[in-house]
Amino acid sequence: MIIGICTCEIFIFNANSLKSKRSVVKSIIEKSKNRFNISIAEVGENDKWQKSIIAFSTISNDQKIVEETVEKVINFFDSYSEIEIINIKREIL
Question: How many CA atoms lie within 13 A of 21 on its CB side?
């Protein structure tokens, strides 16, 4: 069993309140969960308006599939014009 874990620190443009930040983060999390069948959550920077840390994981018997899924999710995050990825940490176990 191969496990892929990724943590992305993101900057959210035009977030002027926690409510607007949560709206963007919730959208990213729900769409990612439905599209890629991953476990995903906001894990840090909960009290900051324009920053968030989102972590996700995926599991498979094939390392190539895990690596591809992690890359696809990162590319999906990158497609959002409302955010910029500041830092990415990936780990394959």
Answer: 19
